[in-house]
Fold this protein.
Amino acid sequence: MKSALKYFEEICQTIDKEGLTKNEKVITSPQGAKVHLADGRTVINMCANNYLGLGNNPEIIETAKKSYDEFGYGLSSVRFICGTQSVHKKLEKKLSEFLRTDDSILYSSCFDANGGLFETLLTDQDAVISDELNHASIIDGIRLCKAKKFRYKNNDMQDLRAKLEEAKDARIKLIATDGVFSMDGIVANLKEICDLADEYDALVMVDDSHSSGFMGATGSGTAEHCGVEGRVDVITGTFGKALGGASGGFTSGRKEIINLLRQRSRPYLFSNTLAPAVASGSIKVLDIIQNDLSIREKLFENTRLFAEKIKEIGLDVLDNGTPIIPVMLYDEHKAVEMAKRMMDKGVYVVAFSYPVVPRGKARIRTQMSAALEKEDILYIVECFKQVKEEMGI
């Protein structure tokens, strides 16, 4: 026991010596365009997944508060025993209408949604073909299933075709991809993915965690954005990012798939029900998104402004037209130092390094929010310019 603990301690010490410790900063305020830190500073937030700025929306908060009187604090149960309330069914129905799918099922997180998907649907007679840059939750979910596993190069349709050809004798073939890739902001080529799926009689699964609520004309996600609504078989996502920023996840899609998940998906069967306050708040989130497209429009106005201005100062950025705009430093220590200096100037950004991104691909991932104003964005760009000059980049 002691030798094991010593080994774990040495690993953490090595990480610290490399300057790559992922420290947690304590926030003492609600999530928003600006947040208060435990050390007394107020900083502009450029690293949250609060894309639509709904994390501290008064209407959502009031809805959640009212739900406590009607539905209580929690259910102390799983869905199939005595953990299903009318609010959960209402959210599933509303979510399906928003995504334009047959049915939806709720999970405690999208990590659980992905963790409970693949082993439920696939056996050793089947094959899963996964994009190399898929989120860790997809990777871990795939590890749990017995299907043959193939990995194709990021958004590379020729490589996807080659892998589908290798898997052509499998009973079920499932292509798995992020809708928007969380580290680079790249949009999956869903049109060609769906075309290949049709050609090889495969299913398509999309994780829309970084897409739901703002991608597409009405914000329903990458299927709408790419013009393939009705052709994606499974959509997973979260209420913890653009859709209110609280917690909880979902799987939505073909009724046959959702029905099977209700019977066999282990994280659904063996995890407590989504808190009723979160379910109620999420219904209000969908109401707001469907009735006020101006929030989405402001998000993309902010995105275009920041991308344009940050490129003007000569930083190497990945601009794929999404609110995820990584500032590429490549060197882990430079990324950490830039993040520190930006924080000193009142801009909250975080350095990302291995194993979150590949070695040599260190960056500061900036994330735009509809909560930010133009003057906030211009100030952030000015700070990046100053730090760039200070560091001689």
Q: What stands out?
A: The chain has two domains: 20-49+293-391, 58-291. The mean pLDDT is 95. The chain has 16 helices and 13 strands.
